[in-house]
Prior knowledge:
Blueprint: H1 10-19, H2 23-28, H3 33-47, H4 59-79, H5 82-100, H6 106-113, E1 124-127, H7 128-135, E2 154-157, H8 159-175, H9 184-189, H10 191-208, H11 222-232, H12 239-251, H13 256-262, H14 271-282, H15 294-299, H16 316-326, H17 329-332
Antiparallel strand pairs: 1-2
Helix pairs in contact: 3-4, 3-5, 3-10, 5-8, 13-14
Amino acid sequence: MRVSDYPFTQEATEHVRSLGYSLESLLSKSSFKTVRSRAAERVAGAMGDAIPESSGDTVAENLTELLSYPLARVMVSCLNDPILLRRYALAEAKLAFRRMQDEKEGLTMLAGDLGLNLRGPGPWKIYFAEYIRAAHRMHSPKWKLTNRDLFEGYLTVTEVELKRILEEVIREKVLKGLPTPVDEKICQTLEEYLKPLSRQLETLRARQKVDLGAVEEGAFPPCIKKMLTEVAKGVNLAHSARFALVSFLLQINMSPDEVIALFNTSPDFDQERTRYQVEHIAGSAGTQYRPPACATMATYGNCPGEDELCRKIRHPLGYYERRARMFTPAEVHQ
Length: 334
């Protein structure tokens, strides 16, 4: 396992610390210009398609890769945008995932560094508590503990599954502690790199902004408002919440394209997959789905709490219809 490929690991952190380079030298010395450029490239890649790969063929390139990671975290913290933070963490995790494809023995070492104690040469046995901690945000049925071969507290994961689990652990580790406290003077020193990144971030925000038009946002029930707020922050909704939100918005006459655009803020947004899911819910296969009733929403943990009107209705659409009649469009959009 090449430590520069995984700069978020404890081993990488200790190696960087042993080198003794100060943050001041990374920020100012001309010899570290490639490090600063690579750090900015990491952040820019997170706002684009992906962080570009680095060859790492020389000692200097490996050092640049190691040192650019903590500096990229500084840049992200200077920009301090919640959508960027999540996109950056996901982009670093996806870069690591691509690098894992060439790992053999290194997978076990990487897992151990990240706190997963594997048994066996692969497929591996993993303790259920460690598995839950690593896979709790993965909502596909195959990841549910009830669908795994649990025996004496351990379950089996394949190489493909382990790589996906490690990607999720890395995403959470990178996100942890962001934004880190950064002195304003440090941000000013990095202005040459932060200015273009800031412009790119503004473009990203503008592209993700959606005009809901005549849709009466003020009439939305609390559950839908909360889901929209989470989506705007770049949070990945649980499958049940995403279905409820999409089906609700389609039922109040938002177009599939408008609904798809809402999810642009998701850090792992996949337009083709999202379009398929939204159009399926809209009825492309012959059945148009309605959002679940309030009782079902509560069962799945998607009810943030009732307001006065909630107590009088049984369905989010009923809430919306009644609330919309209570206000004129002008009042709703104030």
